[in-house]
Amino acid sequence: MALENLRDSFDTSQLLRLVDRLDVCLVELGGITSIRDELLRLHAMALTLIDGTVPTVPAENACVWETAESMRLDLESLSLWIRDAQLMTAPLRGLAPHGGA
C-alpha cells in the first residue's frame, strides 16, 4: 500500500535536486574541509581567549565573535539543507516493513 501511494505521489527527481542543492551549499561553504578547518580555528581562538593558551594557529587578526557568527551562518545553511533532506526522504522511510527499522 505504501509503495503504491509513493508511485502515485513521489517524484524521484527531487532526490537528484537535493544532491544538486547539497553540492551548491558545500561550494558556498568552501566544502566540508573548510567547515572543519574553521571550527578548529574557532577552537584555537577560544582556547587562547578563555584558557590563556598560546595560540597554535594564527588568528589572522580575526575576532572570535566574528568567526563564531560566520560559523553559525555556515551551519545554518547546512542545517536548512539537512531539514529539507529529512522531509524529502521521509516518505521513503515509510516503506520499512512492519517490525523493521
Global Rg? 20 Å
Number of domains: 1
Described by the principal axes of the CA atoms, the overall outline is: elongated
Instruction: Quickly count the helices.
Output: 4
Please characterize this protein's 3D structure.
By secondary structure, this protein is mostly helical. The protein has one domain (17-90). 74% of the residues lie in helices and 0% in strands. The protein is built from four helices and no strands. The mean pLDDT is 88.
SSE inventory with pairings:
Blueprint: H1 2-9, H2 13-29, H3 32-51, H4 64-93
Helix pairs in contact: 2-4, 3-4
List keywords for this structure.
4 helices; mainly alpha; 0% strand; 101 residues
What is this structure, in a nutshell?
By secondary structure, the chain is mainly α.
